[in-house]
Every structure is written in structure tokens, then in C-alpha cells.
Design brief:
Elements lengths: L2 H9 L3 H9 L3 E7 L2 E10 L5 E8 L2 E7 L4 E8 L1 H10 L14 E2 L7
Antiparallel strand pairs: 1-2, 2-3, 3-4, 4-5, 5-6
Length: 113
């Protein structure tokens, strides 16, 4: 761990949760504007087209969701980084009989001319 990473974890211990997700197969992509990190997006894919996603703007501003293979949202949560990650970790695998399957929303379709 670099000194910068250690300092970030000391100041924001919640970041350890992102490191834990990365170790569980999540992939992350930072959004940088004018050289400053403004968001981090994460995704974990499951067999048969399911995906879990995470958006983090700050330790107090995060959102997570699970999409089925058609793009339907079957679970979502907004809140602190810790609350959202706890929710994602508690979600059963999509193949589990207790996993959420009811589509509660549809993601918007991309605009085309």
C-alpha cells in the first residue's frame, strides 16, 4: 500500500469497503473532471446477464442496484457508502431462491436520433 493510499484509508476508513469489493470480483472505474476525482463506478457481473452496480460520489452519497438480464432493476438503495455496500453484500446471488426477481424499475433507454 502506498503512503497516499494509507493516508486516504486513515481519513476515510469507509474506503476499505471498496477494497473488499474489489477483492470479491468487482471492477471499478473512476470519473475524473479537471484532474479531480468526482465519482467512482463499480460493477460485478453474474452469469446469465445479471449485474450489480455501485456509484459513489462521497462517503455520504452512494447508490447501488441490481439489474436482471433485460435491464430491469430488481433491487436498489441510496445512502451512505457503508449502507449501500452492506446492502449489496447482503444480496443473495441472482441464482439463489431468495434473490430479488421482481422488476421495480426500468433503466432509461439511450437516446438516439
Amino acid at each position: 500500500m502506498t503512503p497516499e493510499q494509507a493516508a486516504a484509508l486513515t481519513e476515510y476508513p469507509e474506503l476499505q469497503r471498496l477494497i473488499d469489493l474489489r477483492g470479491a470480483g468487482w471492477m471499478f472505474l473512476p470519473t475524473v473532471v479537471d484532474g479531480e476525482l468526482v465519482e467512482v463506478h463499480g460493477v460485478r457481473t453474474w452469469p446469465e446477464g445479471w449485474a450489480d452496480a455501485l456509484r459513489v460520489r462521497y462517503t455520504t452519497d452512494a447508490a447501488g442496484l441490481r439489474n436482471d438480464y433485460t435491464g430491469g432493476v430488481t433491487w436498489q438503495r441510496e445512502g451512505t457508502l457503508t449502507e449501500v455496500i452492506d446492502g449489496l453484500i447482503a444480496l443473495p446471488a441472482p441464482s439463489d431462491r431468495l434473490a430479488p426477481r421482481l422488476v421495480i424499475a426500468r433503466r432509461p433507454l439511450p437516446w438516439t436520433a
